[in-house]
Design brief:
mainly alpha; 2 domains; two-stranded antiparallel ribbon; elongated
């Protein structure tokens, strides 16, 4: 747990319109509901003193606090990522960014598996920008990093597909049998398209999906 706590130490943040939003929140507090908050500041997020509920409610935790997580980073708060002269991230935030990119490529609505090629026109025109938008919602990173980000996202997406193939594809099993065992995190239509590709003649001549 200690190592996870250190993950967020010494990071730099930028907060957009923080003062205005906080003032607005204070003027709209419902006295009958004063244990609930609609805005979380950076310090409270780092200490993770709030509990997030599926219906959108946010309540202050009672008892021991838990570690902060990027998934509940307050709206308007971003982690600053500095770039080197090659427009690649540096400093501690770079490692956190890299881990976050790995989670994004596993989201079906951001990096669908039924679009089989990273450089497919549909992927480039729609999903590249969606992925970059997801990154900039959490990280303050300059536009010059675009090529680096897309290269990293593409590599991580291919690695994710390769792991799925290694775990689920068995040449001796019927394709329908593999389709029936779709992971819970993957939409059925996307899974079926991916599995169909694994059994295609084109995929059979590829080396472990490394050129997909």
């Amino acid at each position: 747990m200690a190592s996870r706590a250190r993950e967020f130490e010494n990071l730099e943040f930028v907060e957009n319109n923080y003062a205005d939003e906080e003032e607005e929140m204070e003027t709209n507090v419902d006295p009958a509901n004063n244990d609930e908050d609609t805005y979380i500041n950076k310090d409270d997020w780092l200490n993770n003193v709030y509990e997030h509920y599926p219906d959108g409610r946010i309540k202050r935790r009672r008892g021991p606090t838990k570690l902060a997580h990027l998934s509940n980073l307050p709206e308007g708060v971003k982690i600053i990522v500095k770039l080197d002269r090659f427009n690649a991230p540096i400093s501690k935030s770079a490692g956190l960014l890299g881990s976050y990119l790995g989670t994004l490529v596993k989201k079906p609505h951001l990096a669908p598996l039924n679009v089989l090629k990273w450089n497919d026109d549909m992927f480039k025109e729609i999903y590249h920008d969606k992925l970059l938008a997801a990154v900039t919602r959490k990280f303050a990173i300059g536009p010059k990093s675009r090529d680096w980000l897309l290269n990293q996202l593409g590599n991580k997406w291919r690695q994710y597909k390769a792991k799925l193939k290694k775990k689920h594809y068995k040449a001796e099993l019927p394709m329908e049998r593999v389709m029936e065992n779709a992971p819970e995190t993957i939409e059925e239509t996307q899974w079926n398209t991916l599995v169909s590709y694994w059994y295609s003649e084109e995929a059979k001549v590829m080396l472990s999906g490394s050129f997909q």
